[in-house]
Amino acid sequence: MSNVVRVETSDRVARILIDRPPVNAMNVDVRRGLLEALSVLRGDAGIDGAILAGAGGRFCAGSDIEEFDAPPAAPSSVEVFAALENFPKPLVAAIAGVAFGGGLELALACAYRVASPDARLGLPEVKLGMLPGGGGTQRLPRLVGFDRAAPMIFRGEPVSAKEAEGSGLIDAVVEGDLLEAAVAFLFARRGDTVRPAAARSTWIDRVREDRPAFEALLKDWTAKAREKKSANAIAEAFRAAVDLPFDQALQRERALFVERRDSAEAKAQRYLFFAERDAAKVGLDAPSVRPVDRTAVVGAGTMGVGIAMALANAGLPVALIDSDEKTLDRAAATIATNYRRQIESGALTAIEAARREESIRRGTAITAAGDCQLVIEAVFEDLGLKKEIFATLDRVTARGTILATNTSTLDVDAIAAATTRPGDVLGLHFFSPAHIMRLVEVVKGRATAPDVLKTAVMLARKMGKATVVVGVCDGFVGNRMHLRRAPNVERLLQEGVMPATIDRVATAFGFAMGPCATSDLTGLDVQWRIRQAKGIRYPVADALCEMGRLGQKAGAGYYRYDPGSRRPLEDPVVHDLIRKTAVSLGNAPRAIGDEEILDRLLLPMINEGAGLLEEGIARCPADIDVVWATGYGWPTWRGGPMYFADHIGLITIRDRLERYSTQLGDETLRPARLIKALAAAGRGFSSLPAARV
Length: 693
Ligand code: 3H9
Prior knowledge:
Blueprint: E1 5-10, E2 13-18, H1 28-42, E3 49-54, H2 77-85, E4 91-95, E5 98-100, H3 102-109, E6 112-115, E7 120-122, H4 136-144, H5 146-155, E8 159-160, H6 161-164, E9 172-173, H7 178-188, H8 202-209, H9 211-224, H10 228-243, H11 246-261, H12 264-279, E10 295-298, H13 302-313, E11 318-321, H14 325-344, H15 350-358, E12 360-363, E13 374-377, H16 383-396, E14 402-405, H17 412-416, E15 425-430, E16 439-443, H18 450-462, E17 466-470, H19 478-482, H20 485-494, H21 499-509, H22 515-522, H23 524-534, H24 539-546, H25 572-584, H26 594-614, H27 621-631, H28 641-648, H29 650-664, H30 673-680
Parallel strand pairs: 2-3, 3-4, 4-6, 5-7, 6-9, 10-11, 10-13, 11-12, 13-14, 14-15, 16-17
Antiparallel strand pairs: 1-2, 7-8, 15-16
Helix pairs in contact: 1-2, 2-3, 4-5, 9-10, 10-11, 12-27, 13-14, 14-15, 20-26, 21-26, 24-25, 26-29, 28-29, 29-30
Bound molecules: (S)-3-Hydroxyhexanoyl-CoA.
């Protein structure tokens, strides 16, 4: 008898229950338990059918990812899917919570699927650098057609039970007790002829009638994918569905899956999966938490609006406070537009959108924060202004209210010192747009109380965020590393490398956008103002700003833009400026290869990351990688900058940094002490133990 698969029989129906907390992930014990249960029940004359369900309100989160790095253990999941599909009596998957990956594939192999209204169904393997390996690419399109299956498999986005109802994926969404409803469903279908997914060919017949159209769709999906190898494998699996008999197509899918599972890209994404979950546990060891049922956001600009929406989305009422009525009106309009878009895209019902919108009340007086248990300040980056606001919050809020600043660079300890209770203060650094971007750097101040940290981490998790606890310094983890890239981009431009070349190298590496296109998007004036204040001169970037080329909003920056378009177009004016600057600086023309460009974009950041570890600002290299993967568009299949550095090898990183430092006369490129020490010892970043932040 399995300890993770239970069978209970009553009313001539067997209930097969996967019970492996927390998410019923399918490991070897589950596979064995399922096979045993199915083989016993096959010959059981005392049942008319069976229900497959998960304990604890979750069906199954898929294969146990931890097993992927170990040698395969029998029985394989393929045997389980076959046993489900060939079960001689009606078999109903009763889905609550999540049915993801191999979990959904279990359900697809059953004759029927019923689900609770809150259930989510998905094939997220692509987000782990893979494709479904248990029939997902074969059964799903047979059940729902290519147009519905493609986004689920190529993008890995789940659908809700409601969206899936009636599409062939979910036969019925049922309210109330799921198991009882599943049994009732089974009784109603007694005697019906079951048509397993494998036997359905409507989609395939249609493809065969117009193969070029199908190929065009596959080309479109693979072109859109950032990580091409998984996308190409998915396209191959779809082709197999059309070209091969079902059993052979399953084998082809499995072979593609195994190849992807063992790939460097998939290993990197598994590493990030667990790194993100480790990072989310930091701070949770405090013995208590503070209650948070009412929140406030001070400052109704872009960041404030995003944070208010993120809080409202997590079910919390928010007071959005700004002394300027007009800013508040603009904020209200933005919030309304954002929610309307979500209704239009089907992401939210009109009722839910209205509920969230109404939960954000606006006010001009900071006293509106008086009855809140958590206040997030999101005014612009001015230490004096922030200190003033914190001094006021100190007066108007009750003791114990958590006071958080959304500063991206300023000294959280200095802000905390403006209050009489620095223990209640911490940083919550959201990324724009805050209701969409997943990362929150939780900045622990010198005095931040353990229960304040714990409450903030738990709240951010409730908001669906990836949390990384970091220490106080200029720019924390993400921005401090990011700021190392800008001077190096400028330096490349000064040496005559064109923006499009730099951006091409960055996007070929996997960034969604290159640094020059990104600057055009965010506006060149922000960094210009910061440089001016610090007395720093960037000949190329400054000249662009002086010409009024402030980026997309001005129709020109590193690139030019046609009216109403965001497509960057190379501009001879910029080329001319760059060439002249290179000459005036005495930079002899030389061909700078892609490898050097990439090195000079990435190595300074890795070097800074090492500095963050030396100083204890970042707890461990994996935390830095989570910051970059979830907040800065680092290609997840490359695992994050520190993981990438280990992959290259720290001896190589050290030597290249030395070389560039000498070549460019730039002392900031000298390898960090930590890199030198690890390289000398033949170790990598991953060998470091996690420190306390
Ligand atoms: C697959 O199925 C391939 C097949 O096609 C092949 C053929 C069969 N394995 O995220 P949480 C752990 S590939 C192992 O904090 P939430 C997680 O590490 C798989 N462990 O909770 C954490 O552990 P700990 C396709 C897993 O409520 C704990 O569960 N499936 C797995 O915010 C709680 O997780 C996926 O990609 C797993 N599959 O979110 C689904 N899943 O407590 C990946 C979770 O020690 N999982 N854990 O830190 C998820 O998306 C989310 O975890 C889920 C729950 C939505 C399920």
